[in-house]
Amino acid sequence: MRSRSRHEHKRILATPLALSLAIPAISATSAMATTLEEADPATPPGTFREINLGTDRTTQNFFYRIPALAHLGNGVVRAAWDGRPGSAGDAPNPNSIVQRKSNDNGVTWGPVTTVAAGFTGTADQGKYGYSDPSYVVDDESGKTFAFFVYSKDQGFGGSTWGKDDTNRQVLSAAVVESSDDGATWSKPRLITDVVKPGDSAVPGAVRSTFATSGQGIQITRGQYAGRLVQQYAGDVMQSDGSRVIQAFSVYSDDHGATWQRGEFTGSAMDENKVVELSDGRLLLNSRDNAGGGYRKVAISSDGGHSYSAVTQDKNLPDPTNNAHITQMFPEAAANSARARKLLYTGANSQTSRANVSARVSCDDGKTWPGLRTIRRGFSAYSVADTLDNGKFGVFYEGNYTDSMQLATFDES
């Protein structure tokens, strides 16, 4: 177990400026999401620093995509992504999960290491791969988990029904865990039977599913404090015979020993994230698979087991892209002003993956009055976390090859 949890460490380092908007050069916006003009990221007040973690490529891991980020406390930060051989393609490309470690809140970084290695295949053995990483940090036990898909011959679009992990037509679900801040990892543990119910096309069965990349959470307030929550998206058979892409949570109340699947929610969902609100409820925030132009949101009052009806948040544009939402002050007291502050990162466009930006809410995600552009032009998936030096980190794709950018900035 860590000598000091990441939340305890943040509490020590937080400053009185925490009650101000926490992104430098944030300007007021209208209630409706728009693409706003911003100052160059390098010039606003406060500090802004950016480093490319994706410059060290190999033939096996030549194309880099899909960022994941986790602050583990005591200055330790882990950043992971897909190393993709041959092309930048999703599963079933024989991808690997790779990562780098920082011991100084993202200032300097160690070499690329492998969490789970894919295999390109031989005449005697078929290919397999691991894709789309998401970290979940358990501050209570000191463990770190990484979720991802395990593919053989099919990806999300081609996977068949059933949960038989030996079936090469089934897209499987995997999780690994570490007790040493990600220095070493367990062998992949398959949880396909949890996340992919049903062996045939019957109502409630899941044809294909994946853990949504980036980062999951541990609930810290209320009845479900301590629960670990990782989001999934799945292609679910409905009672009328139709198939719908729905979101759902997978959670653990025993520090990852066992995992449970919550109820399916929404339609035309996709990569989705949850954030804990000031009162312990969860806010789900999802990519719109149907291209509706805005993020989809819902609320859970039972720790992610079920969610309210899904609505559009027209403060947050969405070009069918993975985004992220996180607490700015996870150590804050329940229902306090600090606890109500959230940070959202995503493409500031309804039509293209471009202009990755950070937005701030001071009211548990009801409104998003602050905007800060991080990267102009093409930029895609992103994930964010609070560091224990009072800064914020946003890890995002600058392209689909060799641009895995970590932007860090303070709250001035």
Automatic annotation (TrEMBL):
This protein's record includes keyword DNA-binding: no
Native source organism of the sequence: Glutamicibacter mishrai
EC number: 3.2.1.18
GO molecular function: exo-alpha-sialidase activity
Signal sequence coordinates: 1-33
Protein name as catalogued: exo-alpha-sialidase
Residue ranges the record marks as coiled coil: none
A GO biological process held by the record: ganglioside catabolic process
